[in-house]
Amino acid sequence: MSYRAPVEDIIATLRHVAGLDGLIAEGLAPELDGGLTDAVLEEAAKFAGDVIAPLNRVGDTHGSTLKDGVVTTPPGWKEAYKAWTEAGWNALPGPEIYGGQALPTLLQSACTEMWNSASLAFALGPLLTIGAIEAVHAHGSEHLKQTYLAKLVSGEWMGTMNLTEPQAGSDLNALRSRAERVGDGTYRITGQKIFITYGEHGMTENIIHLVLARLPDAPPGTRGISLFLVPKYLVNADGTLGAHNDLRCSGIEHKLGIHASPTCSMAYGDNGGAIGWLIGEENRGLACMFTMMNNARLNVALQGVAIAERAYQQALAFAGERRQGTALDAPKGSAMSPIIVHPDVRRMLMDMRAKTQAARAISYMVAAALDRSHRETDEARRKAASERAAILTPVAKAYATDIGIDVASTGVQIHGGMGFIEETGAAQHLRDARICTIYEGTNGIQAIDLVLRKLPLSGGNAVKALISEMRGVVGKVEGANTPGFGHSAARLKAAIDSLERATDWMLATMGARPGEALAGATPYLKLFALAQGGTGLARKALAMRAEENGAAAVATARFFAEHVVTEAPALELAVTEGAGAVEDADAVFAA
Amino acid sequence: MSYRAPVEDIIATLRHVAGLDGLIAEGLAPELDGGLTDAVLEEAAKFAGDVIAPLNRVGDTHGSTLKDGVVTTPPGWKEAYKAWTEAGWNALPGPEIYGGQALPTLLQSACTEMWNSASLAFALGPLLTIGAIEAVHAHGSEHLKQTYLAKLVSGEWMGTMNLTEPQAGSDLNALRSRAERVGDGTYRITGQKIFITYGEHGMTENIIHLVLARLPDAPPGTRGISLFLVPKYLVNADGTLGAHNDLRCSGIEHKLGIHASPTCSMAYGDNGGAIGWLIGEENRGLACMFTMMNNARLNVALQGVAIAERAYQQALAFAGERRQGTALDAPKGSAMSPIIVHPDVRRMLMDMRAKTQAARAISYMVAAALDRSHRETDEARRKAASERAAILTPVAKAYATDIGIDVASTGVQIHGGMGFIEETGAAQHLRDARICTIYEGTNGIQAIDLVLRKLPLSGGNAVKALISEMRGVVGKVEGANTPGFGHSAARLKAAIDSLERATDWMLATMGARPGEALAGATPYLKLFALAQGGTGLARKALAMRAEENGAAAVATARFFAEHVVTEAPALELAVTEGAGAVEDADAVFAA
């Protein structure tokens, strides 16, 4: 099943929801002046559709395999990666002095979506490299930067993140891997890591591992964790590769999805210790890790959008071809109609489309806020943008990945019996999507992050500013005199009212009764996403309604408001009056 | 991961929701008098947990394979089936004169749930045999009954249903398989069938295929379809097996889940035609098929309940063992707590539990109504029961299978990264569950069936009677003076109000504007299920609240009311004011 990047909606979302035009007009993205955005997106779309997308199914059926310590990626994988890096795509986000293009996150994000629609398993590797680049660039010594960054930026080498250990998943307090000071500025790393994405493979000549470990005299808990750079092959002073470091892949996982992405168990220090270099300060590894993580969460959100888009395209194509039954208004004895004429199938397709575009809207808003948080010249505006990015990141990550599963599952449903057959490809999207709600912080952790750490920013005013903007959109829908919006304004208004009341309840409750607040964290996050996504789609539709495809934008916004946003009052109740039912679980689990 | 049948909740649901006690008291289930129910369920629980459940993962990893026309089922499969039939479990539903026990559907259903929790792929085969027994018993000639029923009832032979062809899935109008009259009372069948569950295997000596085909002079469409019995091996007059019939398995599918259940492509008549016998009358095959189908839909509903129960048990056990983070009220420096202490994990577990039990409640209500539809002595009461079964069957099928996927997916989420690893087993439940919303009529078709064919029964009064019963339950919750119910009464009342308004809208709309009615069919069905399931759980909780585990029943009913039923008003809006947004899809799909 082919993939054609939805360049039109991507550009419309960048412009009308994420505010690309404003960014350029304010001089905050001078490199995008003069139509570069469209040109980059068209080229990326071509590469994603023509080169990567055809490998998605191959990657799923072959998977990556481990034999005698060697990981083999699927046929065509290495060649596609080489072509992709040679075309410069890996360098899009990298700093310019190391050969990168340092393009705005907004534009990068649109491309990230495309690579992941084409193949989640393929695009995942480079996302980890970006994280490694960011950590080394922000916290690494000059020596580390000079030795590693150019190769990582070009994609000649790939990077990994080594956090998880069997006993330490979400809770890094329990980390046990150890690092010993040698005295020459290097460290010796020992320990076992699991779930290391692209931990071993032959796609690049070297792999640069970023590894969390404890020094012998480190305090317990997360304040005693340091971050180390541990290359697969040591790098000589002249940049050539030296000896193999004391590390190996001890196993790869047999997973539900993303089969082509090797998920490795890594053993460090079988023979005395892998040689590592400290990144940042001793015992401050977690701060370095967080640098990588916020961006990574946005990228996982984009994976959710990406898989939903791919599943939608496949279901739409199938529904236009597969004939079963006849249309309600067809004359008796008519031949079978394509199933897209059936109201319930249309409803499902609209549901897929609207959720995908809403998740795209929220995710691109995060990207725009990140750009402003770096590029605004005014300190207060930088801070406001940074807080906005902080608030919307968990919302985007959790909502986009939740709907990724939801939309992919509806895609299977539209295929009927064929959807359950692996050769069709619809089921792969569901299997692949299933990881996104788990990694980079489970969606439950995103909800906790939103409620406990993000809502209180600027005393709650950062959230209130977003809510106030949402109300502005509703006002414009009300005044738009566009019948196609149907009941959108009323539904959005109800959702924003619910969000505001739930926000007030959260702000009042989290300090005194955190257990109650946390019982409602997940429904609160979803409520936030519905209001944010619904107003995002409405904003895009308002801007586009006079254009050629304006009616489609209005119809999509309307569907989301009338069929999805409607859940908002129920979510408010779950937040504000639902904690008791969660607490009563004592009676159940004690039984 | 082990499975222990939830005998306690099964019995409570049978008694307090499905009305088992009343059935017995009214003399309608004399065979269950004197504690037989408990004894049967305890034995079934033992067999399901000890013998079948351990095979579930083996079945998934080995799958069934096809080589040179021979299908091999996974190791242990044949032996378990033999033990299961020898213990008499296959004969539970069969007619007594053919060696069956003819136990009430209510009791059978509880057992069916258990077999399917233990292994969906295992239990699926015997479900098809039940369908074959019903069709032959209701419509077959005396010769067919004498030749086949005893062996099918004992399980010595298995049966299949052959409906689907590549061009004819949900739409049987397009069926092409042909049957020619030979003149000796037999027919020659030719054609290709796909998606035939347990179409070929070596678990039994013979396989009895029920095949839909057209006679040469048949009218087009579904009024020209006849049903034939086509055995794999012809049966001699003395009951021994004769020649292999002209049929073969031409392929088996590579599926997302239920790997152990061979899903076969069947070729009939490669060498002139398979010998078949007509079941019922010529061109009336569809009516015979419907006999099998209603019960089959209940059984698929029970599969949804079953997989949800298994996923819940696995997630609950994991959450009690896996340690990450510390409880909110734990002293600083405490060791990690089991994740079941975290409010969001508790919320997810309660969500799984409440949805599973609500789906069980609705499904068992269907079974009870089916029993009354056969066993009531009064004609009017039989009709009322039959209409109730007709209404609740699509509700149970669609809701239970939808939550089957939902609950299994939450189970994966609770496992975190481990949930994505196949060895854990959580992912298998999600993969297995995914078929249930598709086969035996997609859930979209269930919703259409509910709205177009079931709502109008007795001029809408059959539905209204159910709604009125639901109101009675709310009255009792209001008067119960049990604080543990929290806001349950208010939430249930709101849902029933929504259901009643949506029902009136549907009854008024389906004739004049069927397209609008069908656009809301799926949300309508879900709304129905929330009100029915919510009041079902409340009824059980009311009956149990003074018992030892009463608090758990009340807490579960409360969670469902406060966190799940709350969506009802949103669903009402989708039904009564959401059709426009679906119709506007024209602007989208034409673009």
From TrEMBL, chains A, B:
Q: Where in this chain does the record put each Acyl-CoA oxidase/dehydrogenase middle domain?
A: 161-267
Q: Which cofactor does it need?
A: FAD
The record's section on InterPro entries has: Acyl-CoA_dh-like_C_dom, Acyl-CoA_Oxase/DH_mid-dom, Acyl-CoA_Oxase/DH_mid-dom_sf, AcylCo_DH-like_C, AcylCo_DH/oxidase_C, AcylCoA_DH/ox_N, AcylCoA_DH/ox_N_sf, AcylCoA_DH/oxidase_NM_dom_sf
Extract the Gene3D superfamilies matched here. Acyl-CoA dehydrogenase/oxidase, N-terminal domain, Butyryl-CoA Dehydrogenase, subunit A, domain 2, Butyryl-CoA Dehydrogenase, subunit A, domain 3
What UniProt keywords apply to this chain's record, in alphabetical order?
Answer: FAD, Flavoprotein, Oxidoreductase
Which catalysed reactions does the entry list for this protein? 3-(methylsulfanyl)propanoyl-CoA + oxidized [electron-transfer flavoprotein] + H(+) = 3-(methylsulfanyl)acryloyl-CoA + reduced [electron-transfer flavoprotein]
- Residues forming the Acyl-CoA dehydrogenase/oxidase C-terminal domain are 283-448
Q: What class of enzyme is it?
A: oxidoreductase
**Coiled-coil annotated spans:** none
Record EC number = 1.3.99.41
Q: Which family does it belong to?
A: Belongs to the acyl-CoA dehydrogenase family.
* Name assigned to this protein: 3-methylmercaptopropionyl-CoA dehydrogenase
